Task: inverse folding
């Protein structure tokens, strides 16, 4: 809302400087954006919050200033003299859309002299209606004619939009407020034709729509140099209806802006009279008696009780009762009744936002000044525990950055091609947004991997060939039934160069750092988007922790990534379930350990994990470690489809030195177990160290 | 000798030899290294080769294969060292210590600056007793609007100002529809629905609004929302907490000011500014939790009261690290990420 320094002085004397005023208003709720010299005047741009439609006119702003500086306010009391026959003899009013229009009024002035506006009027409008060009110069308001300029003046004076119709161009003897017909057309005064539908409220004559209610007038009834009689509309259109219409038609006007923020129900008639008074003054003419008015009764505002105890309860300070009364009275509230503990106040008609006690508390506080509230009161201490999640996330970041992987943050909504690339968690189609977020992206991601792969490709294209990236964020798994909120799963994912075993090593380091004692079950699986052999699902018990794998070559080539890409994605919730974040010390055995090597010949289909499990299950707590050494194939000796796996075991006791005989016994059990479970045969005799 | 030991000694030999070959600085030391590792009579490799005879017959092919690999690798290392010595810069014969040469780079990953900011904020608020809470990013209208006192005809619910999901059920903004949350205030509601006062939380997370991306706007960003509910909480407590927060975050005593504002879920509502480097800097929005919100979650506004505040994480992050374009934060570009 731009207010003119000169214009404001029609309602009160401003003895402070414009800078001081702007500062004071900012601290009372009208945030000062900037000030601009316009000729000899100063235009002050104030940001008006959406609840304060009453400040979208000069009188509203002047009222705030009057309260803040305790100044007398003088508001005109327009009493235009009616001389003509009653308006009802010339035209009637039909109202068929009360949901969109709470009140419709019209006055008629005949025999006006359309002509240029007086200088004071033009200057006033030029102070507030201007646009800044790119070069900083101002594009100023072009006066139209006295009648239209006056409607604009009263709009900026009171915040109540008005419209003047050329009465002579109306067809029939009725003004009709109604929903538009579907597909009905209207050419507006901006010379564009709008296609309407039944959600749009129009003002119509008996032939056609003549205005889009609350948004813009129609061209067919525009006031021009030939106009003799004018019909002045002042109405209340509902915020929702006006907003929907303005949005649908992409047509926003100073009128729609104000109706969306609510106008003063009692101020409608004032604005109509004020407009007529100024027209009679500037353009002559004869005002018809009476007024068409769909709802002349303006319902009163219910009283709001303010208990004295509530001011300190909410604000933390005591405010003198006389000061409170002065503030609320100055804002237009009327005291209805009072007792020792409370006062009942009737808010003014223009303050639709004052309906509850706490609304009055806020009014008192903002005028009294928030600077009076202390910023050094004591606050009781309270415990705040760090969540396990945060502890785990910190550990994850430690491991990943130590592995040389950097954290990225990528958008949660991705394009379809990325969504389809890798989806290790669900087959259900991704949820989509109605409007795209970025470059057509509508899919709520089901995995973090595609975004990271894409980032790696973008980095590669920009010659950053070492983009090893991780991200810790939600993925969105569609619910089982439509309408359910999706299951949001915190995941950590990474992509890097290097090979599968390095990626797996990073995953294993994460598990160890999170204190997950259990070894994950590695299930080699075909995962769409990943290499057919180098891809595995990791499980703990019956829960899937995640996947680790190598990116499919074809996808990699499509993304112009020449070198191998490996990746992993883990479910943080499952990791947390199994983690033990406070490491527990285990005594270090004081007795020596014995290392033995075992070279097994097994079928090609036997996996390391199987062999390791058999070894582990054969020996108890004395088995300290099982280490993989290498795999060797010699079909000429061992036969086709066979391989040798060399492994070492460490054996140790906590309570005594393990003897060679004990070790031999354990090794025998291991060999037996592996033979029985996996058909493994030991290559040669057990060799001691 | 076991196969495993044989392989271990080979590996150790390779490691030692490579280290020595890589650091020879003269023909003499190169020759000494050659004799030590590759010498035909008593070279280290020869010594290990002699052990091959003691390996079990079945293991021999495997051991032999490995031995040959190591032999090739040592020969390569020797060649490489010899080539390097012939280059004039190193060929003047003297071992030159050069402590000003750069150290061997350590490849360390970087933590995203937004994460760093979030951790900083959580840490400061944690010291004031605010625990971290979280809620879902995909929300229903009840948590994103209704319980936050945002009525049905409020512009904030507009389908063009929110990322509603294309679900079969529920028309936009109404029961049954879903949207990406437009503010972290939703977490207030989720926490209050399941807990009784006193409550002291901060929630941090992603929020979404359909803004066209430019240097200061992105359709996805992060907010921090603080909430304190108890008996006898006043605006003085709000002002105190925010001042202490600002002092902690900015590192010296700062004053703050409130400017009246409007948010549906707080009353009174204020904008908060910090006085920093001789100017007022906008911090975020705050206010006393609206009684309608307290009622919506089943609290009695006559018994308890509280305050809430919210701020944009990116703005704090960008100011702190002198980042000028918000889009850089979400680019995934290593040239950006590696600076933090």
Result:
């Amino acid at each position: 809302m731009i207010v003119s320094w000169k214009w404001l002085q029609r309602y009160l004397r401003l003895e402070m400087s414009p800078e001081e005023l702007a500062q004071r208003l900012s601290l009372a709720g009208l945030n000062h954006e900037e000030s601009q010299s316009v000729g000899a005047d100063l235009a002050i741009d104030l940001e008006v919050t959406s609840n304060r439609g009453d400040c979208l006119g000069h009188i509203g702003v002047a009222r705030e200033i009057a309260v803040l500086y305790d100044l007398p306010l003088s508001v005109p009391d327009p009493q235009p003299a009616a001389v003509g026959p009653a308006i009802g003899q010339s035209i009637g009013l039909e109202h068929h859309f009360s949901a969109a229009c709470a009140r419709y009024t019209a006055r008629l002035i005949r025999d006006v002299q359309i002509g240029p506006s007086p200088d004071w009027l033009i200057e006033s409008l030029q102070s507030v209606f201007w646009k800044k060009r790119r070069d900083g110069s101002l594009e100023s308001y072009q006066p139209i004619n006295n009648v239209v300029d006056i409607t604009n003046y009263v709009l900026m004076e009171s915040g109540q939009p008005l419209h003047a119709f050329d009465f002579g161009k109306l067809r029939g003897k009725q003004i009709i407020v109604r929903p538009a017909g579907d597909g009905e057309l209207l050419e507006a005064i901006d010379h564009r034709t709008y296609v309407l539908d039944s959600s749009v409220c129009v003002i119509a004559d008996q032939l056609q729509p003549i205005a889009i209610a609350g948004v813009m007038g129609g061209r067919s009834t525009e006031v021009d140099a030939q106009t003799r009689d004018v019909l002045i509309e002042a109405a209340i259109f509902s915020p929702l209806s006006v907003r929907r219409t303005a949005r649908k038609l992409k047509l926003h006007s100073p009128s729609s802006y104000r109706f969306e923020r609510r106008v003063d129900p009692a101020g409608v008639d004032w604005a109509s009279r004020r407009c007529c008074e100024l027209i009679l003054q500037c353009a002559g003419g004869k005002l018809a008696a009476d007024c068409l008015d769909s709802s002349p009764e303006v319902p009163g505002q219910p009283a709001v009780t303010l208990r004295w105890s509530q001011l300190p309860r909410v604000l933390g300070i005591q405010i003198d009762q006389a000061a409170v009364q002065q503030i609320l009275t100055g804002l237009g509230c009327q005291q209805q009744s009072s007792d020792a503990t409370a006062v009942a106040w009737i808010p003014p008609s223009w303050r639709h936002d004052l309906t509850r006690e706490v609304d009055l508390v806020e009014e008192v506080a903002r005028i009294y000044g928030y600077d009076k509230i202390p910023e050094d009161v004591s606050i009781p201490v309270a415990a705040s525990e760090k969540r396990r999640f945060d502890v785990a996330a910190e550990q994850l970041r430690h491991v990943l950055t130590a592995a040389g992987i950097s954290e990225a943050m990528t958008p949660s909504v991705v394009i379809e091609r990325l969504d389809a690339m890798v989806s290790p968690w669900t087959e259900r189609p991704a949820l989509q947004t109605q409007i795209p977020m970025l470059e057509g992206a509508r899919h709520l991601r089901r995995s973090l991997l595609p975004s990271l792969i894409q980032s790696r490709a973008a980095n590669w294209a920009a010659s950053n060939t070492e983009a090893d990236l991780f991200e810790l964020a939600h993925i969105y798994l569609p619910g089982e039934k439509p309408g359910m909120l999706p299951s949001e799963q915190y995941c950590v994912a990474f992509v890097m160069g290097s090979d599968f075993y390095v990626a797996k090593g990073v995953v294993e380091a994460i598990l160890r750092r999170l204190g997950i004692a259990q070894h994950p079950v590695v299930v080699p699986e075909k995962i769409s988007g990943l290499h057919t052999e180098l891809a595995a699902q990791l499980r703990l018990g019956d829960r899937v922790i995640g996947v680790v794998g190598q990116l499919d070559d074809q996808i990699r080539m499509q993304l112009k990534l020449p070198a191998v890409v490996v990746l992993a994605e883990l479910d943080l919730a499952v990791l947390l379930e199994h983690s033990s974040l406070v490491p527990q010390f285990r005594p270090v055995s004081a007795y020596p350990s014995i290392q033995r090597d075992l070279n097994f010949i097994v079928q090609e289909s036997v996996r390391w994990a199987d062999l390791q499990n058999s070894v582990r299950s054969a020996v108890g707590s004395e088995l300290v470690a099982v280490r993989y050494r290498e795999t060797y194939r010699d079909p000429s000796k061992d036969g086709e489809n066979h391989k040798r796996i060399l492994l070492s075991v460490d054996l140790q006791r906590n309570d005594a030195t393990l003897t060679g005989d004990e070790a031999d016994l354990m090794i025998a059990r291991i060999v037996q177990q592996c033979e029985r479970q996996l058909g493994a045969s030991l290559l040669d005799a057990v060799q001691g160290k | 000798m076991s196969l495993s030991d044989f392989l271990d000694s080979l590996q150790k030999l390779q490691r030692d030899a490579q280290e020595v070959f890589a650091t020879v600085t003269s023909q003499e030391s190169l020759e000494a290294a050659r004799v030590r590792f590759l010498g035909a009579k008593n070279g280290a490799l020869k010594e290990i080769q002699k052990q091959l005879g003691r390996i079990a017959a079945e293991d021999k092919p495997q051991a032999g294969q490995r031995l040959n690999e190591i032999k090739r690798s040592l020969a390569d290392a020797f060649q490489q060292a010899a080539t390097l010595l012939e280059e004039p810069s190193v060929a003047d014969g003297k071992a030159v210590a050069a402590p000003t040469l750069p150290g061997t780079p350590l490849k360390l990953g970087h933590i995203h600056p937004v994460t760093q900011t979030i951790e900083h904020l959580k840490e400061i608020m944690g010291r004031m007793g605010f625990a971290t809470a979280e809620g879902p990013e995909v929300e229903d209208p009840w948590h994103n609007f209704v319980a936050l006192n945002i009525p049905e005809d409020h512009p904030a619910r507009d389908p063009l100002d929110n990322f509603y999901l294309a679900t079969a059920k529920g028309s936009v903004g109404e029961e049954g529809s879903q949207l990406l949350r437009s503010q972290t205030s939703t977490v207030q509601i989720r926490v209050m629905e399941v807990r009784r006062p006193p409550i002291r939380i901060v929630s941090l997370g992603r929020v979404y609004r359909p803004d066209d991306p430019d240097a200061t706007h992105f359709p996805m960003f992060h907010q921090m929302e603080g909430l304190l509910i108890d008996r006898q909480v006043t605006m003085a407590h709000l002002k105190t907490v925010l001042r202490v927060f600002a002092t902690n975050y900015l590192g010296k005593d700062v004053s703050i000011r409130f400017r009246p504002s409007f948010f549906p879920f707080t009353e009174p509502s204020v904008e908060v500014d910090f006085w920093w480097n001789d100017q007022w800097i906008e911090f975020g929005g705050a206010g006393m939790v609206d009684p309608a919100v307290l009622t919506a979650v089943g609290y009695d506004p006559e018994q308890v009261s509280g305050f809430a505040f919210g701020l944009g994480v990116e703005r704090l992050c960008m100011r702190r690290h002198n980042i000028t374009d918000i889009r850089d934060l979400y680019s995934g570009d290593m040239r950006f990420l590696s600076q933090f």
Remarks:
- Residues 82-293 of chain A form a domain with the Phenylalanyl-tRNA Synthetase; Chain B, domain 3 fold (CATH 3.50.40.10).
